[in-house]
Amino acid sequence: PVSTLAMPSYKLSEFDTRGLAEVSRQLFILSGTPYEDNRISKDQWPALKEKYGFGELPVLEVDGKQIPQSLAIARYLAKEFGFYGANAFEAAWIDALADQAKDFISDIHPYFAIAMGMVAGDTDKAKAEIALPAIKKHFDLFEKVAKDNGSNSHFVGSNFSYFDILISEFVFSIDSFLPGSFDAFPTVLAVRAKVTSIPAIKEWIEKRPKTVT
Amino acid sequence: SIMPSYKLTYFDGRARAEVARQILYLADIPFEDVRISLHDWPSLKSTTPFGQMPLLEVDGQSLPQSFAIFRYLAKQFGFSGDSPFESAWVDALADQHADYFREILPVLLTIWGFTQGDRMALVKEVATPARDKYFPLLEKIAKDNGLNGHFVGDSLTWVDLLIAEHVGSINQHLPGFLSAYPSVIKTVNKITSTPRLKEWIEKRKETTF
Question: Which residues form the GST C-terminal domain (chain B) (predicted)?
Fold first, then answer.
């Protein structure tokens, strides 16, 4: 819970996409914290790029002070709002899982580049040779972690963490391209079911801008 | 309170574990520095949570993923910035560095002898563009931070150690590769002259990677 006495102003700038910024949007929503959801169009970006320290999005501004890099932002907000585990070791495991998820993005990225037409290639071949092996490799692991945690619908500890939200979003995004990909990972799907059953999140998912990723 | 036992397991090299060793040494915390040969790794792999190293064990409880290990130890021992905002910047710079490192890794793997490749072509076509994209940013960050010997804030953080270790590796194999970035070099030199770190660097075993 955040003290309303000295509530900072929050502005999250990102392209009109969910991506890794979506975790932070949902952290604001889960914590009931108002924020400006600033979506920048591709046309606006060249002129704005220099304003941002690393020349990339997303960027969070806290009372006008910038924090770049999607997971640094998510970790900062998770810490502020209490979605970072019950102790330092749990926090470290949440971080480890998030970094593993980034490795997964890196592994599956070539499939999406082809499937979205950004790069020439055979989508079916990419699905078989890139996407499905990447999903199996990383989600076997995530499934095990969720089970070892007691199949309590969380990956770490007994409360929602930013990683629960991150995976919930990943599953949604990838399922839209490859329906049924996660049928082999029921414990992972249980985490997603729990996240998306939170009324504020359910409402957000229904009303948020519909984007491909 | 009783100090936990720390055990760090990695290959016999610096690469993705060195920052953890440095944090523990800087904090004067005894730890078991386990080094696994390439030959022995395959049989050990399935016993680790993510099938990867480095692996930290704290009182026997495993923690994988290098940056999660670094951030955890840094937080325990005071190397993660002086405020939540600074910690976020340490995290952000580390992730930006990781993006660059992912690009340059194929070149390093060839230089370190793990993969075959045309070293000169890789340096020209892969390492150079990766460097030219990232190091101007780092140069500006060092300057904007006042050339105070740190990349973020005014005390030693794990991202200082991360960048200094990488620059050291580059200097080892590609001398002069970073000569266009004097503020980065100056900052790294200040970092590595931190007395206890200097001591660690001088007495550690020399490795290719």
Answer: 83-209
Strands, sheet with B6-11, edge to edge from the N-terminal-most edge strand? B32-36, B6-11, B55-58, B61-64
Strands A65-68 and A59-62: antiparallel
Identify whether B54 is preceded by a cis peptide bond (ω within 30 of 0).
Answer: yes
Per-position b or e across A76-87, b if 16+ CB within 10 A of its CB: bbbbbbbbbbee
pLDDT of residue A63: 97
Q: Which residues pair with A61 in a beta bridge?
A: A11, A66
DSSP letter (8 states) at residue A87: S
Half-sphere exposure of A80 (CA within 13 A, CB side): 26
CB contact under 8 A, B61 and A99: no
* In contact, B116 and B122? CB cutoff 8 Å: no
- Cα gap B126→B118, rounded to integer Å: 11
Q: Which residues of B are catalytic?
A: 10, 16, 112
Facing residue for B63 by CB, picked from A71, A72, A96 = A96
State whether residue A200 sits within 8 Å of chain B by CB. no
Mean pLDDT computed over A135-162: 97
Is A11 in contact with A57 (CB distance < 8 Å)? no
